[in-house]
Design brief:
Blueprint lengths: L1 H23 L7 H15 L4 H12 L2 H7 L1 H6 L1 H6 L1 H25 L4 H7 L6 H11 L3 H25 L5 H23 L1 H29 L1
Helix pairs in contact: 1-2, 1-3, 7-11, 7-12, 8-10, 9-10, 9-12, 10-11, 11-12
Length: 226
């Protein structure tokens, strides 16, 4: 019980500290979720604390992921008029982005001859964590491994997304929102919020649509190609 409370409090305090640091030094590599994760890993290694011990409290935070995903229905409802107005470009962008995200990870893994179990865990990397873990579990993958791939995709998008968008001169909030939401899910949406409210709204919509799309397509894709 003591370890559970301790690791939970430690995670929250560290995240708040990293968030303050990011606000002061607004550098892409200092995205709070990336720096918090890195510090926690270093602390576990330094003090030789087993992962299972950390998860006595970490799992409490993990349990909040499910309700957080369900709560995304609220911004979707709030922005229903925006979705109606830009239905075609949003759906086209999410469909293309999700398809590329799924197939790129799959074929790269096949080229590198990675184990089937890991491939299944990798395919839903661009979907929000709870759904990716469920897809991996149902399809015969490793849920915790899927969560790692999702985090890597989300953090990478948050760190390098703005530079990529700038490189390709994507400035419209629809393009920015669809890009962040489809490729980097919740973490990307948080990054989009730093750019603007409209970008964050489109990102949250895109994240939800891509999650629904992936939940339907991933099991079919895995059954057909693996």
């Amino acid at each position: 019980m003591v370890w559970g409370v301790g690791t939970c409090v430690l995670t929250i305090v560290l995240f708040q500290m990293m968030k303050l640091m990011y606000q002061k030094y607004h550098y892409p590599l200092l995205v709070p979720i990336a720096t918090t994760t890195t510090v926690i890993i270093l602390l576990l290694l330094l003090f030789n604390i087993p992962y299972e011990t950390y998860m006595l409290g970490g799992s409490w935070i993990g349990e909040l992921l499910g309700p957080a995903v369900v709560a995304l229905a609220f911004p979707l409802y709030q922005n229903k008029n925006l979705l109606k107005k830009y239905f075609t470009p949003i759906m086209a962008g999410v469909f293309i982005g999700s398809t590329i995200g799924l197939l790129s990870g799959l074929y790269l893994a096949l080229m590198l001859q990675i184990d089937k179990e890991i491939i299944i865990s990798l395919i839903p990397k661009s979907v929000t964590t709870p759904i990716a873990m469920d897809i991996a579990s149902i399809s015969g993958g490793i849920p915790t491994m899927a969560a790692v791939f999702v985090t890597v995709a989300g953090v990478s998008g948050a760190m390098f997304g703005p530079s990529i968008l700038k490189l390709f001169r994507i400035t419209h909030y629809i393009g920015i929102g669809v890009g962040f939401g489809t490729a980097s899910h919740g973490i990307g949406t948080a990054r989009a919020l730093e750019i603007g409210q409209k970008e964050a709204a489109i990102s949250s919509i895109s994240m939800i649509i891509s999650a629904v799309f992936a939940a339907i397509v991933c099991p079919i894709l895995i059954k057909l190609l693996l």
